[in-house]
Amino acid sequence: GDTTQFAEYIQKNIQLYKMRNSYELSPSAAANFTRRNLADYLRSRTPYMVNLLLAGYDTATETPELYCMDYLAAMIKAPYAAHGYGGFFTTTIMDRHYKPDMTKDQAYALMVECVREVHKRLIINLPNFSVIVIDKDGVKNMDPITPAIVAKTAEA
Amino acid sequence: DMVCSVAGLTSDANLLTNELRLIGQRYKYDFGESIPCEQLVSWLCDMKQIYTQSGGKRPFGVSILYMGWDKHYGFQLYQSDPSGNYGGWKATCIGNNWNAAVSMLKQEYKENETSLEEALDLSIKVLSKTLDMTKLTPEKIELATLTRENNKTQIKILPADRVEELIKRYEKAEAEAEAAKKEKEKEKSQKP
Predict the structure, then answer these.
(1) Rounded-to-integer distance, Cα B43 and Cα A21, Å
(2) Residues B95, B131: contact at Cβ < 8 Å?
(3) Tell me: the pLDDT tens digits for B29-61?
(4) Which of A49, A114, A128, B47 might form a disulfide with A90, Cβ 3.0–4.6 angstroms?
(5) Is B31's CB within 8 Å of A21's CB?
């Protein structure tokens, strides 16, 4: 509930900014705005319990950016990040294999590795994961990672 | 990343400059970056407009020039007046004798061809011809420049010696122009 409410609120405000000013918020500005809202609501009667990852492409500097925020409104810009119990495992995988000059396919393979670890170690059964790419051409869905894909990549 | 210059009732101006600072800082607090120029101007002008339409209060008797830089549109110059109307400019003037000053700028300012130094020279020229004073000295005027260096906005209020240098350069150019004019007149009168 909180995630939808909060995410929609932020999304609509970002769209409103675009309508008012005819240019978009940069990813860092949007992340700061999100953090500010989360922090303000934290000490109100109605805090939002939302952990989130915010990804965007900054057209001014032509670089992609990732921001990791927890429900206490602590935020950090990072090359890779994860939330939740699964994050304990996947962060180490990414620590080991992430490179700043990875290609999109290499990154997808890294995601598959992360999902394999989650399938192996997490007691909760989460078979399928969606993958979204953000680059200069916008937001796109890649093939979802299914148990079949995890198994296939293991053989390779 | 912005500076402003006011003309009119200083008491009203102080309230507005304070408000401008608040607007700027509030934006920075929310978004973590400097406010884009037009947004700042627009916000203040929305405020000014309210005083012209409701409340039984009087408008602010101030015109303001805003100079700034943002990543969307680069260097910008805006002018606002008591009605809350604002516009973007290449060069403009407010205050005493602004008519004369603007017409001078229209003649002398070359779009995309005037460098910062030339613009400073032009400002001195316009000021000396439109201010009601006999001689221009650094104590009587204040000049500021806004530039971008190393991805940062540099705002400098020119020190007295720099202004003195510009005034001297202008006076020399004026004297030379006068002398050249006199030469031409002599030649004309000497022609049979």
Answers:
(1) 12
(2) no
(3) 999 999 999 999 999 999 999 999 988 899 999
(4) A114
(5) no
CA A141, CA A144: separation in Å to the nearest integer? Answer: 8
Which ipTM value was assigned to this complex? 0.85
- Degrees to nearest 5, angle at CA A25 with A66 and A72: 50
pTM: 0.87
**Of the candidates A23, A33, A60, which has its C-beta nearest B31's C-beta?**
A33
The chain B residue lying nearest A14, using CA atoms, is B31
pLDDT tens digits for A99-151? 999 999 999 999 999 999 999 999 888 899 999 999 999 999 999 999 999 99
* Cβ–Cβ contact B58 with A under 8 A: no
Cα dihedral sign, A91-A97-A100-A103: negative
User: Could you tell me where the DSSP H helices lie in chain B?
Assistant: 10-31, 37-53, 98-108, 116-130, 160-190
